[in-house]
Amino acid sequence: MNRVMVTGGAGYIGSHACKALRAAGWEPVVYDNLVYGHREAVKWGPFEQGDILDEARLAEVFAAYRPVAVMHFAAFAYVGESVTDPEKYYRNNVEGTAALLRAMRKAEIGRLIFSSSCATYGMAETIPILEAQLQAPINPYGRTKLIGEQIARDYTHAYGFDCIALRYFNAAGADLDGEIGEDHDPETHLIPLVLQAAAGIRPTITVFGDDYDTPDGTCIRDYLHVADLASAHVAALERLDAGSKGFAALNLGTGQGTSVREIIEAAQRVTGRSIPVTMAPRREGDPAALVADPSAANDMLGWTARHSDLDTIISTAWNWLDLSTQGALRRA
Ligand code: UDP
């Protein structure tokens, strides 16, 4: 079976990608330092503990498994923390990506799927966002992802690497079978926090700003079900396997924008719980609206979002919260 190495495969998006890879006939070899990842989320192939900064360990794992490609999810991804502690982000996301690519080159593995982000666009000039739009990130996290893309692009140019960078919009939801889900500590993402408020695990959901230039004043994002993200990765890998050359960057989103208020309303409807809301000032580094134009991914990968309606996103995340709290919601 063809093997693919998945850095960060014990994390939220990486673990869902591993499940999709296995279902498509690939063997995912997870490489994760377990700083934020969860060992129990590695279920679909071998696990090797290691850090992307550790080139000797990477060389060992490459030699042992001979993967045909690497999916590189491993990264720190808290926008707020990247503002207060940029060193941590440049070290892991930039130096770590550089170390991984060096190790790949030494091992003669030249196919890469790189986890990039809509945070590389910054304050989008036009909505929906096309890939050709200016990338001008407004926080260190976005800058680290942009630099990662640029390193990968230079490797395709100079060393014959083939890379597809996937620019995720807002990953959300959980595995449709309830086998894995989102477990961040600390949790900062809107949907899990809204559901924790619905469950009474936290008293309220804090809305960061209602004075944006949007129809209801709250920020607009493009929420994409993690199962759709996972299937896009498999499609991208298959493109590389079929001989796609050079560097491509693709937006992964639905093309639909949803405001913070709309998320809270949908969560109230889907869960049948009332959700107390507290208003707060804007969060630093938040653009008013980020919505993808996903047509390039549709065209190049033959991929489209299939599970990203709000009800599926919220009900799978709610189911996961219930499972991961041992049914606390049903008892509440
Ligand atoms: N948000 C919020 N309250 C929270 C967490 C997030 O109002 O407790 C807002 C945030 O300002 C942004 C949107 O929800 O406009 C999505 O935030 P999230 O952190 O989930 O993803 P991001 O877009 O930052 O990657």
Automatic annotation (TrEMBL):
Assigned EC number: 5.1.3.2
Pfam families: Epimerase (PF01370)
Keywords: Carbohydrate metabolism, Isomerase, NAD
Chain ranges of the NAD-dependent epimerase/dehydratase domain: 4-246
GO molecular function, one term: UDP-glucose 4-epimerase activity
Catalysed transformations (reactions): UDP-alpha-D-glucose = UDP-alpha-D-galactose
GO biological-process terms attached to the record: galactose catabolic process via UDP-galactose, Leloir pathway
UniProt keyword NAD present: yes
UniProt keyword Isomerase present: yes
Cofactor: NAD(+)
Pathway as given in its UniProt record: Carbohydrate metabolism; galactose metabolism
Subunit structure: Homodimer.
Family the entry assigns: Belongs to the NAD(P)-dependent epimerase/dehydratase family.
Name of the molecule in the record: UDP-glucose 4-epimerase
Species the sequence originates in: Sphingomonas alpina
